[in-house]
Specification:
The chain is of the alpha/beta class. It is 19% helix and 22% strand. It contains 4 helices and 8 strands, in the order αβαβββαβββαβ. The two termini are 22 Å apart.
Amino acid sequence: MQKKLKIDTLYQGNCLDLLRSLPDASIDLVVSSPPYNLGKEYEAKRALSVYLDEQTAVLRECARVLKATGSIFWQVGAFADAGILIPLDVRFFPILESLALRPRNRIMWVRQHGLHATRKFSCRHETLLWFTKSDKYVFNLDPIRVPQKYQNKKFHKGEKKGALSCNPDGKNPGDVWIFQNVKHNHEEQTIHPCQFPEDLIARERPTLRSGCRGEWDAR
């Protein structure tokens, strides 16, 4: 039986079961950071092929419930096993494409702190894959502009000499994002074992229609 989601309501349960209960083309934005298959306290470590098959089943439902104007942000890190490291976005990219979703950005979330490695470079980033259901997607740049590097920069020659050469409201933040991750004693910390920073989510919300609140966290 399919259900209609209520605004500002949390639904607790198995994400696949909940997704299957939703009608087609009913969600504007899917944001998720699935487990990285590392054997943490909230996940059982599986063979990488099994893990990807399970994630494909979830992504298939995410694609089904997305509206034609909808977006999906899939944030992943790396799978580590026996000393090797596999960037998960490399494995997820073709899965998302196989579901007829269209790639828009591969975003690097840079974290300046974390565990220190001794036999390789320390991992300091995760990846957000932004895909859309169609070419009619929503993207409102103005709410997420960041300050220009050089404020009030002007053209120094030509017909526009003396006029501003940059947008006075700020620039596009680009595809490298620097946000502190939520760890112990962070002001945003709750009991969730793998929180998103609020600022990271805020930067994804401009892919919603103006005034729209329909979104889904598939974690």
